Amino acid sequence: MLTIRDIIQEMEVWAPPGVAWERDNVGLQIGDANEEVTGVLAALELTPEVIKEALQKKCNLILTHHPLIFKPLQNLTPKTFSGKLALDVARNGLNLYAAHTNLDFTKDGVNFVLGQKLNLQNIEFLYQVGGTMKKIVVFVPPDYVEQVTNAMTKAGAGIIGGYDACSFQTRGTGTFRPAPGAQPFSGEIGSLQHEDEIRIEMITPKWKSQTVVNAMIDAHPYDEFAYDVYPNEAIDPMYGAGVIGTLSEAMPVENFIHMVKNALNIPAVRWTRGASDSVSRVAVCGGSGSDLLPAALQKKADAFVTADIKYHAFHEARGIINLIDAGHYETEVWILDALIKRLKKKFSNTSTKFYTTNIITNPIHYS
Ligand SMILES: [Zn+2]
User: Fold this and answer.
1) Which of 157, 214, 293, 334 is deepest in the core (most CB within 10 A)?
2) Residues 301-360: pLDDT tens digits?
3) Is 105 helix (H, G, I), strand (E, B) or coil?
4) What are residue 64's DSSP bridge partners?
5) pLDDT tens-digit profile of 65-91?
6) How many Å lie between the centroid of ligand 1 and the Cα of residue 287?
7) How far apart are CA 277 and CA 323, in angstroms?
8) Would you say the pTM of this structure is higher than 0.70?
9) Ligand 1 center from residue 189 Cα (angstroms)
10) How far is the CA of 3 from the centre of ligand 1 (A)?
11) How far is the CA of 198 from the centre of ligand 1 (A)?
């Protein structure tokens, strides 16, 4: 039986809630993770039409990018737009899960998919910050190194980019004197002991550090032992904001704009001309990415494609960088197919159906 929790777990290996923007509200918004999944429908946001489609397709789990419940709801009545939708979801026995900025900030998330859509090569994060990891150090008798590192690995420590089970181990001598009443693993009460020990170092995303520490404590043979948890300012290669890549061939900015419109299926973009008439290096950020303009400039992008750009931001960019507003929906919607493809592959041995919505939830028209 496939449960809502199984789908959530798979989503969160890819886009952990811990990487979401701190004021975001992601995760299971309505429903019960213990329920069996009848089908999964992905949409950028929840609308009445999406609920109808989920019911028609017999999907009891709706995955959205934009959270329905963002600001605290004062009540659950049909008086507000989100209150009515939330009530409809609950009354129809549906479950609603949101992966928002965690899906923006993860590798192969919203921005990587957008970069691929625009045929960028060598795509990498545009902006990354340190401080999302912790380093855990523990001292273990040699015979127990494998047991402790395995437990920490299982709990989520030791992942560096495409590598797992990463640790560093050095041999040394630990000293201790068991006090009366202690139950030492080795040695005698009151006498100073010198023990051969291995210092194990592993990194962990900071939102997993407590789980890793708990697993480490369970696996350690000593009743009391030393361990350290350090803040780590290094950058985790798996997470960042926006992406940057290179076109296989440089092209005049007019041609690039034409390509963006075709690739994203939009009738028009809003844009301002930058310093270069030729575009090769392109920064992108799906949705409201104006804050990344300095990062795009710093990484020497010829063009920056994002959405929700304000008038004054265009002024700031004019003559400096080709700044292109390609629409919020239009720069994000492509993640849905990627997400469904990923889930289908993971759960290919089940009969559960996975769908991308047929509804265009974009409220904006061009005319
Ligand atoms: Zn968005």
Assistant:
1) 157
2) 999 999 999 999 999 999 999 999 999 999 999 999 999 999 999 999 999 999 999 999
3) coil
4) 43, 98
5) 999 999 888 889 999 999 999 999 999
6) 4
7) 12
8) yes
9) 62
10) 27
11) 47
